[in-house]
Amino acid sequence: ARTFTECGFRVLATGRTCEAIQTAGIPVTKALKNYEGRPNVQDLITNGEIQLIINTPIGKGADHDDSYLRKSAIKARIPYITTMAAAVAAAEGIRQVRETPAANAEILSLQEWHELL
């Protein structure tokens, strides 16, 4: 969440995730789950206010939340990340792209990167 805010994104989160991000001192806006009222995450997706979804479902009711978020993301063509490792990689990738002038950027395939390491 910190990296995304440093890159200029507004971070929205539900429930305990929002609380954890706030506790870490990172700016975050609380979003409602579908069953918590309106406007909720579904509304935000429909209104084009979401650019990326990171959902690491854990606990009771997670299957239901995961299902509607995944379906909404697919319908709205929004990238959908399901692990913290992938979220960190995405954030760092976005940071790198924003910090590296396009003229200096080197784009390599995964196979090419593997050969370098």
List the helices and strands and how they pair.
Elements: H1 2-6, E1 12-13, H2 15-23, E2 29-30, H3 41-46, E3 53-54, H4 62-76, E4 80-81, H5 84-99, H6 110-116
Parallel strand pairs: 1-2, 3-4
Characterise the protein shown here.
The protein has 117 residues and is mainly alpha-helical. The chain contains six helices and four strands; from the N terminus they run αβαβαβαβαα. The strands form two sheets. The protein has a two-stranded parallel ribbon. The two termini are 28 Å apart. The model has no long low-confidence stretch (mean pLDDT 89).
Keywords:
mainly alpha, 117 residues, 6 helices, 4 strands, two-stranded parallel sheet, 50% helix, globular
Instruction: Tell me the major beta sheet.
Output: 2 strands, parallel
Order of helices and strands: HEHEHEHEHH
Strand fraction equals: 5-15%
Structural classification: mainly alpha
- Name the strands of the widest sheet in spatial order: 1-2
Q: Identify low-pLDDT runs.
A: none
Count of DSSP H/I helices = 6
Number of strands: 4
- What would the average pLDDT be, to the nearest integer? 89
Distance between the termini: 28 Å
Shape: globular
Radius of gyration: 16 Å
Helix content: 40-55%
Short description:
The chain is mostly helical and 117 residues long.
